Amino acid sequence: MNVRYISISGNTRSFIQRLHRLAEEEHEKDSNKPIIHTKEIDDNTPEEEETEPFFAFVPTYLEGGNGIDNGDQEILTESLRDYIDFKDNPKLCLGVIGSGNKNFNEQYCLTAKQYAQQFDIPFLADFELRGTNNEIYNIYQLLCEKWPAAAN
């Protein structure tokens, strides 16, 4: 199972590392459970044409405002948007998982929702900050449900 993500503050990276460990543990118990192959995208990552399906994880960083009628301009995470937008990558992206801080109300996970709309992919799930163990488990289960259909 392939995951592409961007992490500015380290929260998404922490979530992905813990998700990866969970996937390894689950795979040890049941070899039919997929392992996660991750790739962190940053401003120095060259755009690359994906050859297999993947999921995208993106935190929300926006320019001020309320996220409704102003302050909905993505900042800091554009390199992941550009990566997904490269060649046929949007067709291989199975969905997006967003993260953010619920204190920002309407802006919570807004970047992931914008990706879903722009690339016509499902907004699958969200987690706050570094995520809880329950969120990690639930998102792994969700990705497993979505992955076999794509992998076959």
UniProtKB/TrEMBL annotation:
Q: Where is the composition biased (Basic and acidic residues)?
A: 26-42
Q: Which InterPro entries match?
A: Flavoprotein-like_sf (IPR029039), RNR_NrdI (IPR004465)
For the region Disordered, what residue ranges are annotated?
Answer: 26-50
Per the record, the domain of life is: Bacteria
SUPFAM superfamilies membership:
Flavoproteins (SSF52218)
One family name in Pfam for this protein: Flavodoxin_NdrI
What name is this protein filed under? Class Ib ribonucleoside-diphosphate reductase assembly flavoprotein NrdI
Q: Which organism is it from?
A: Tetragenococcus solitarius
